[in-house]
Amino acid sequence: MTTSARLIDTIKRELKARGITYKALAERLELSESAVKHMFSTGNFSLRRLDDICGVLEIGISELVDLSETHEQKIEALSEEQEFEIMSDMRLLLVAYCLLNYWTFDEIIKRYDITPAQGIRYLRKLDRMGFIDLQPGDRVRLLLANNFSWRKNGAIARFFRSRVQDEFFDHDFQDDESYRVVKNGMLTRKSMLQLVEKLNATGDLFDDTTWEERRLSADERKGTTMVLAIRHWFFEGFRHLEREHGP
Predict the structure, then answer these.
(1) pLDDT, average across residues 169-194
(2) How many helices and strands, by DSSP H and E, does the chain display?
(3) b/e burial code for range 173-185 (CB count within 10 A of at least 16 → b)
(4) CATH assignment at residue 31
(5) CA 150/CA 234 separation, integer angstroms
(6) What whole-number distance in Å separates Cα of residue 207 and Cα of residue 146?
């Protein structure tokens, strides 16, 4: 579906949600109802007319675009083969990671040792995977759902577990921009599941925040990782102190 078609569908949804008919919209725009119907059927909207309709809906054009992207069907995970393809080239993995964090193509080329020609090849690969929509002018639109994640125990998850996890935790977490909380106690399964639900909600908040700030330049944002973890676990170093069961 083209961008214009998605915008028109979004306008229709927003009009319906507000109970605004074509007739009512026509009156607000000082047009005939037939003119409004023709405009929607042909998709022939001028920028001024689009701005007028957004005024009726009481939203900005940028918000309309955000709504259209939110309702678009997006992928939540890549296939195993696609992850292996990304892992086959560390620069391709880097580009995918940066795009996932809403970097522009120019910001990636400026920051990293990747030539424009190499970068375009990587963008085309990711476009073929359905990871992005490569648009004119080397602009990129992510085709990933907000809850996108790498495959559990997939190639990329294993890479981060083996190469990144230890590096991440090799920190004292004492500066103003880091925080770590470690709790230990005895919980029932019911309480455990309740906490897991709240941790999931916190993860959703992180995703929503990165989405809201995606239009800021990469220079204004810092790479940030949040780890939420909870599991039933007993320190193996104490295992030998357990009292044996039975006679």
Answers:
(1) 89
(2) 12, 2
(3) eeeeeeeeeeeee
(4) 1.10.260.40
(5) 28
(6) 7
